[in-house]
Amino acid sequence: MKIVVAGAGKVGEVICRELCFEDHEITLIELSEKRLDNMIGMYDITGVHGSGALVDVQREAEVPQCDIFIAVTPDDETNLIAAITAKSIGARYVIARVRSPEYSRQMSFLRETFGISVMINPELEAAREVMRGMRFPEALSVESFAGGLVNIVEYVLPEGSELAGLKLYEVGRKHGDVLICMIIRDDDIIIPHGTTTLEVGDHLFVTGSDSEILRFMSNGHSRNRRIKSALVIGGGRITRYLLPRLERYHIRSKVIEMNEDIAEQLAADFPRVEVVLNDGTSQSVLHEENAEHYDAVIAVTGVDEENILINLYAAHVGVRKTVTKVNRTDLLTVLKDTGLKSILTPYRIIANQIVRLVRSMANSEGSNIEAFYSLADGKVEILQFRVAEGNLVSDIPLIDLDTKQGLLIACIIRGEEIIYPRGDTCIQLGDEIVIVTIHTRFDDVNDILANGRATR
Question: Which pTM does this prediction carry?
Answer without folding.
Answer: 0.79
